[in-house]
Task: structure prediction
Amino acid sequence: MLGKRREREREKRRKTILKAAKSLFSKQGANPVTISDIAKKAELSKGAIYLYFSGKEEMRAQILLDDIEKFHREVLPIFKGGDSASEVLIGFAHMYVDFFLRDRALFRILINFMMHANSLNLSDDTNRRIILETNRAISVTENIFQFGIDKGEFLLRKEDVMAMRNSLWGMLNGIISLHLFIGRESTREKRIHSGINECLNIFIEGLKKSK
Result:
């Protein structure tokens, strides 16, 4: 009983640290934030932070892992009776965008990992877990493409599904990156969703003619 209580307390403190770190990363970016800043925000000692995390990079990695898992849970029920594959794909794309519009700090962390994975001070196990969880979340699109193939809606070869998945993911991240941190805040969400719709219309038209 005592062991379970201690474990709950450890998990609660770990979440408190990650919440504080994420808040600071969102406001300032990751580089200017120090461990002392995070400790102050979490109302803990600097030494206490190091009991849970080796440094900021490990915190960012854990934030990314936790939230990718959350996105995967949210997106799993995306298939609804009667929807076409095109409608499901568009629904997925806008869920992906909205997820990062709600949490811009997470998008910064994702892009930082994608651009600097080899230079980050992360263990091989953490790197593998991030890649595995990211692939698991985005692999939902493979099911959507296969759904379209099975219905005869997408004239896509099965061997091209992985390439289409990667192309879609790159397109979504590119459009979010283009608008998320520049331009007027009041029009940002509209610009991103409009850009997604324009590109998806072209993308889906290609899927219907790809053979």
User: Anything to note?
Assistant: The first helix runs from residue 2 to 28. The mean pLDDT is 87. The radius of gyration is 20 Å. Residues 34 and 209 are 52 Å apart (CA to CA).
